[in-house]
């Protein structure tokens, strides 16, 4: 297969991929999302630690001494109809979530 044929095949596949991504986006926009259960889904990443000063001639610049594995708390939810997945790093404090089943006024405690 010559270079021109490879480029043409690549261009066709890239165009098809773009069309499919646009179709998925349209379906997600039209969907009346019904979210499934929230799942704790931590995000893994490499975190730099330490600083070393590198020099070459009159130039000096800082660089990390190394990297270690780390994770960030993250939650995800998936639509049961279209499969769209959303992520969030924010969480609501459990004490501030509204409880619509309890209509009585809060008790007053003196500390």
Topology:
Layout: H1 3-30, E1 39-40, E2 43-49, E3 52-56, E4 59-63, E5 66-72, E6 75-78, E7 85-88
Antiparallel strand pairs: 1-6, 2-5, 3-4, 6-7
Task: List the keywords.
alpha+beta; 111 residues; 1 helix; 2 domains; two-stranded antiparallel sheet; flat; three-stranded antiparallel β-sheet; single chain
Describe the structure.
It is a single chain. The protein is of the alpha+beta class and 111 residues long. It has two domains: 1-30; 33-98, no CATH class. Helices cover 25% and strands 31% of the residues. The protein is built from one helix and seven strands. The protein has one helix at residues 3-30; strands at 39-40, 43-49, 52-56, 59-63, 66-72, 75-78, 85-88. A three-stranded antiparallel β-sheet has the order 1-6-7, with no helix packed on it. The chain has a two-stranded antiparallel ribbon with strand order 2-5. It has a two-stranded antiparallel sheet with strand order 3-4. A hairpin with a 6-residue loop joins strand 6 and strand 7 (85-88). The chain is flat and about 55 Å long. The N and C termini lie far apart (82 Å).
Largest β-sheet summary: 3 strands, antiparallel
- How many strands in all? 7
The run of helices and strands is HEEEEEEE
Q: What characteristic shape results from the CA principal axes?
A: flat
Query: Segments where pLDDT lies below 50 for 5+ residues?
Result: none
Biggest sheet strand order reads: 1-6-7
So how many helices? 1
Strand content: 25-35%
Helix content: 25-40%
Structural class: alpha+beta
Number of domains: 2
Mean pLDDT: 83
Distance between the termini: 82 Å
Kindly provide the radius of gyration, computed on alpha-carbon positions and rounded to a whole number of angstroms. 26 Å
